[in-house]
Structures are given as structure tokens and as C-alpha cells.
Amino acid sequence: MSTTAAALGTFSVRPLDPIADAELLHRWVTDPKAAFWMMQDAKLEDVEREYMRIAAHEHHDAFIGLHDGEPAFLMERYDPRHVELVGLYEPEPGDVGMHFLVAPTDTPVHGFTRAVITAVMRELFADPATRRVVVEPDVGNKAVHALNAAVGFVPEREIQKPEKTALLSFCTREQFEAAVRDVEVPR
């Protein structure tokens, strides 16, 4: 599925190749702007290993997001019954977990990150089985909290994960559609 955002171009995703995409991902996840990704000190082999683990996992997928055909963001989809949130909340049927990371740039484009998260959400909700998207960003990541709110996420509560204190938030299909109505046109 591809999404066109007014004046920003076309967004789509493709499956991530843990070996072929490792150098690209390594640049993204170790950039200072990706501090909340918690891979600042990762070596190339660490990135390969992590994404090979994800590729082999039955309940976790990773994708390279494309902007006008060029790699521009990372998207992860996971089943919170089996990954990330096990024992931290009571999953409902149709819950899907999500992470996203926009490629660092020295020339930011106004509205680009919002267009990316909107494209990610459209991709997740393209599956009719997805009823609700779940996220668990670091409580200190105020920028992503604002982005999440802009696409319809509602915070529920803070949770303690092994690596961080996170803000557990949910977004139903209806909340997403209401939040982004008239923002972009799906193709």
C-alpha cells in the first residue's frame, strides 16, 4: 500500500532485509537523533543480529519505509501478546504493536515525520484484523507523544519495561481516521 501526503510525496513500505539493509539501519539507529531507539553504541554486527532476530521471529516484522521510492524510515510491527508487552497489559483481539524511526537528516522537512507516522498507521490498518495499534514510547520522548496524539493515540498509563519507563498508548481505527481525516489522500 502507498500513501500520498499533500506536497510531501508518496510513502510505502517494503520488507527489511537484515543483511542488505544493515549499513543503512546502522547509520539511522546510531545517529544522536535516534537516542530513544537505544542503539547508540551498536556496531554493524549488532544491528544485523537484531534485525535477523526480528526477521526470524514469528510475531515481529520490520520494514523499510520509502519516500518517493527512497529509504526514509524504519517500521516495526509486533504482536503484543508475544513481544514487548507480555505481562504489562491485557491485550485485546486485533491489537498490533508498532515502532517507527524516521531517518536522521540535516535538512528536516516540515510535516514529514507526521506524514511518516500517518503512512505507518495506514499500513497497519490496511490489515482488516487490526483493531487497535499499541505503542510504548519512553515517557521522556515528548516529540513522539505529540506525534502519537496527532494521529489519534490516547495515553493509558506509564509502564515499567526492563529498558525504560514507557507511556502505554492506544489508537483504534476510528480514532486514527478521525485524527487524520482530510490530511492525506490514500492511493
Explain what this protein looks like in three dimensions.
By secondary structure, the chain is of the alpha+beta class. The protein is built from five helices and nine strands. The protein has helices at 22-30, 44-56, 112-125, 142-150, 173-180, and strands spanning 2-5, 9-15, 60-67, 70-78, 95-102, 132-135, 154-160, 165-172, 184-186. A nine-stranded mixed beta sheet has the order 7-8-6-5-4-3-2-1-9, sandwiched between helices. Helix 1 (22-30) crosses helix 2 (44-56). The chain is globular, with a radius of gyration of 16 Å. The N and C termini lie close together (8 Å). The mean pLDDT is 91.
What is the tally of helical segments?
Answer: 5
Main sheet record: 9 strands, mixed
Query: Total strand count, please?
Result: 9
Q: Give me the strand/helix succession.
A: EEHHEEEHEHEEHE
> Averaged pLDDT, please?
91
How far apart, in Å, are the first and last alpha carbons?
Answer: 8 Å
The fraction of residues assigned to DSSP E strands is 25-35%
Give me the secondary-structure category: alpha+beta
3D shape? globular
Helix fraction by DSSP (H/I, runs of at least 4): 25-40%
